[in-house]
Protein backbone atom coordinates (compact mmCIF):
# COMPACT_ATOMS: atom_id res chain seq x y z
CA UNK A 1 0.00 0.00 0.00
CA UNK A 2 2.79 2.41 0.91
CA UNK A 3 4.51 1.32 -2.27
CA UNK A 4 1.44 2.19 -4.35
CA UNK A 5 0.93 5.49 -2.52
CA UNK A 6 4.51 6.54 -3.11
CA UNK A 7 3.77 6.78 -6.84
CA UNK A 8 1.13 9.40 -6.14
CA UNK A 9 2.72 11.39 -3.36
CA UNK A 10 5.55 13.88 -3.33
CA UNK A 11 7.88 11.20 -1.97
CA UNK A 12 8.19 9.99 -5.56
CA UNK A 13 7.18 13.02 -7.65
CA UNK A 14 8.85 16.06 -6.18
CA UNK A 15 12.40 17.32 -6.12
CA UNK A 16 14.03 17.91 -2.72
CA UNK A 17 13.63 21.65 -3.35
CA UNK A 18 9.91 21.33 -4.03
CA UNK A 19 9.44 19.19 -0.92
CA UNK A 20 11.30 21.80 1.13
CA UNK A 21 9.04 24.52 -0.28
CA UNK A 22 6.02 22.54 0.91
CA UNK A 23 7.52 22.11 4.38
CA UNK A 24 8.12 25.88 4.46
CA UNK A 25 4.53 26.57 3.41
CA UNK A 26 3.14 24.36 6.19
CA UNK A 27 5.52 25.98 8.69
CA UNK A 28 4.39 29.42 7.50
CA UNK A 29 0.75 28.52 8.18
CA UNK A 30 1.59 27.07 11.61
CA UNK A 31 3.72 30.07 12.58
CA UNK A 32 1.13 32.64 11.45
CA UNK A 33 -1.84 31.22 13.32
CA UNK A 34 -2.44 30.51 17.01
CA UNK A 35 -4.49 27.41 16.30
CA UNK A 36 -4.42 25.46 13.04
CA UNK A 37 -6.41 22.43 11.93
CA UNK A 38 -5.24 20.70 8.75
CA UNK A 39 -8.43 18.98 7.68
CA UNK A 40 -10.39 17.38 4.85
CA UNK A 41 -13.96 18.48 4.25
CA UNK A 42 -15.40 14.94 4.22
CA UNK A 43 -13.44 13.59 7.20
CA UNK A 44 -15.63 12.71 10.22
CA UNK A 45 -12.74 13.07 12.68
CA UNK A 46 -12.08 16.55 11.28
CA UNK A 47 -15.76 17.41 11.68
CA UNK A 48 -15.62 16.32 15.32
CA UNK A 49 -12.53 18.47 15.94
CA UNK A 50 -14.07 21.53 14.26
CA UNK A 51 -17.33 20.99 16.21
CA UNK A 52 -15.42 20.92 19.53
CA UNK A 53 -13.51 24.09 18.65
CA UNK A 54 -16.68 25.82 17.43
CA UNK A 55 -18.55 24.80 20.58
CA UNK A 56 -15.91 26.45 22.77
CA UNK A 57 -15.87 29.48 20.40
CA UNK A 58 -12.16 29.24 19.68
CA UNK A 59 -10.68 31.17 16.79
CA UNK A 60 -8.74 28.86 14.53
CA UNK A 61 -7.42 28.50 11.01
CA UNK A 62 -8.68 25.56 8.96
CA UNK A 63 -6.75 24.30 5.96
CA UNK A 64 -8.99 21.96 3.98
CA UNK A 65 -6.36 19.93 2.19
CA UNK A 66 -8.86 18.37 -0.24
CA UNK A 67 -9.77 21.86 -1.50
CA UNK A 68 -6.18 22.60 -2.52
CA UNK A 69 -4.26 21.36 -5.54
CA UNK A 70 -1.18 21.01 -3.34
CA UNK A 71 -3.11 19.25 -0.54
CA UNK A 72 -1.39 15.87 -0.94
CA UNK A 73 2.00 17.54 -0.97
CA UNK A 74 1.19 19.56 2.16
CA UNK A 75 0.03 16.34 3.80
CA UNK A 76 3.43 14.79 3.05
CA UNK A 77 5.07 17.90 4.50
CA UNK A 78 2.95 17.47 7.63
CA UNK A 79 4.29 13.93 7.98
CA UNK A 80 7.80 15.33 7.77
CA UNK A 81 7.10 18.05 10.34
CA UNK A 82 4.91 16.22 12.84
CA UNK A 83 5.33 12.51 12.17
CA UNK A 84 1.59 12.38 11.47
CA UNK A 85 -0.05 12.16 8.03
CA UNK A 86 -3.67 11.60 9.09
CA UNK A 87 -6.15 14.44 9.38
CA UNK A 88 -7.11 16.31 11.42
CA UNK A 89 -3.57 17.41 12.21
CA UNK A 90 -3.78 20.06 14.93
CA UNK A 91 -1.34 22.71 16.17
CA UNK A 92 -1.66 25.07 19.16
CA UNK A 93 0.86 27.93 19.38
CA UNK A 94 3.20 26.22 16.89
CA UNK A 95 3.16 22.99 18.92
CA UNK A 96 1.84 19.76 17.49
CA UNK A 97 -1.22 18.58 19.43
CA UNK A 98 -2.06 15.50 17.34
CA UNK A 99 -5.32 14.29 15.86
CA UNK A 100 -8.96 14.33 16.86
CA UNK A 101 -8.50 11.72 19.59
CA UNK A 102 -5.85 13.94 21.20
CA UNK A 103 -8.13 16.98 21.03
CA UNK A 104 -11.06 15.03 22.48
CA UNK A 105 -8.79 13.84 25.29
CA UNK A 106 -8.06 17.48 26.17
CA UNK A 107 -11.80 18.18 26.12
CA UNK A 108 -12.58 15.17 28.30
CA UNK A 109 -9.88 15.90 30.87
CA UNK A 110 -10.98 19.54 31.15
CA UNK A 111 -7.82 21.18 29.82
CA UNK A 112 -8.96 22.14 26.30
CA UNK A 113 -10.10 25.66 27.25
CA UNK A 114 -6.91 26.55 29.15
CA UNK A 115 -4.72 25.11 26.40
CA UNK A 116 -6.61 27.21 23.86
CA UNK A 117 -6.35 30.30 26.07
CA UNK A 118 -2.58 29.82 26.37
CA UNK A 119 -2.40 29.48 22.60
CA UNK A 120 -4.29 32.77 22.09
CA UNK A 121 -7.39 31.24 20.53
CA UNK A 122 -9.74 33.72 22.19
CA UNK A 123 -7.78 36.88 21.41
N1 LIG B 1 -7.14 8.57 15.23
C1 LIG B 1 -7.15 9.63 14.24
C2 LIG B 1 -8.02 9.19 13.06
C3 LIG B 1 -7.87 10.14 11.88
C4 LIG B 1 -8.17 9.47 10.54
O1 LIG B 1 -8.30 8.24 10.45
N2 LIG B 1 -8.30 10.32 9.53
C5 LIG B 1 -8.48 9.81 8.19
C6 LIG B 1 -9.53 10.66 7.47
S1 LIG B 1 -11.15 10.55 8.27
C7 LIG B 1 -7.20 9.98 7.38
O2 LIG B 1 -6.38 10.83 7.68
N3 LIG B 1 -7.06 9.16 6.31
C8 LIG B 1 -5.92 9.28 5.45
C9 LIG B 1 -6.05 10.40 4.47
O3 LIG B 1 -7.12 11.03 4.33
O4 LIG B 1 -5.04 10.68 3.80
C10 LIG B 1 -7.66 10.90 14.90
O5 LIG B 1 -8.20 10.80 16.01
O6 LIG B 1 -7.48 12.00 14.33
Automatic annotation (TrEMBL):
<dbReference type="GO" id="GO:0005634">
    <property type="term" value="C:nucleus"/>
</dbReference>
<dbReference type="InterPro" id="IPR011899">
    <property type="entry name" value="Glutaredoxin_euk/vir"/>
</dbReference>
<keyword id="KW-0676">Redox-active center</keyword>
<feature type="domain" description="Glutaredoxin">
    <location>
        <begin position="35"/>
        <end position="97"/>
    </location>
</feature>
<dbReference type="GO" id="GO:0004364">
    <property type="term" value="F:glutathione transferase activity"/>
</dbReference>
<dbReference type="GO" id="GO:0034599">
    <property type="term" value="P:cellular response to oxidative stress"/>
</dbReference>
<dbReference type="InterPro" id="IPR036249">
    <property type="entry name" value="Thioredoxin-like_sf"/>
</dbReference>
<dbReference type="InterPro" id="IPR002109">
    <property type="entry name" value="Glutaredoxin"/>
</dbReference>
<dbReference type="GO" id="GO:0005737">
    <property type="term" value="C:cytoplasm"/>
</dbReference>
<dbReference type="Pfam" id="PF00462">
    <property type="entry name" value="Glutaredoxin"/>
</dbReference>
<dbReference type="GO" id="GO:0015038">
    <property type="term" value="F:glutathione disulfide oxidoreductase activity"/>
</dbReference>
<dbReference type="InterPro" id="IPR017937">
    <property type="entry name" value="Thioredoxin_CS"/>
</dbReference>
<dbReference type="GO" id="GO:0004602">
    <property type="term" value="F:glutathione peroxidase activity"/>
</dbReference>
<dbReference type="InterPro" id="IPR014025">
    <property type="entry name" value="Glutaredoxin_subgr"/>
</dbReference>
<keyword id="KW-0813">Transport</keyword>
<dbReference type="InterPro" id="IPR011767">
    <property type="entry name" value="GLR_AS"/>
</dbReference>
<protein>
    <submittedName>
        <fullName>Glutaredoxin 3</fullName>
    </submittedName>
</protein>
<keyword id="KW-1015">Disulfide bond</keyword>
<keyword id="KW-0249">Electron transport</keyword>
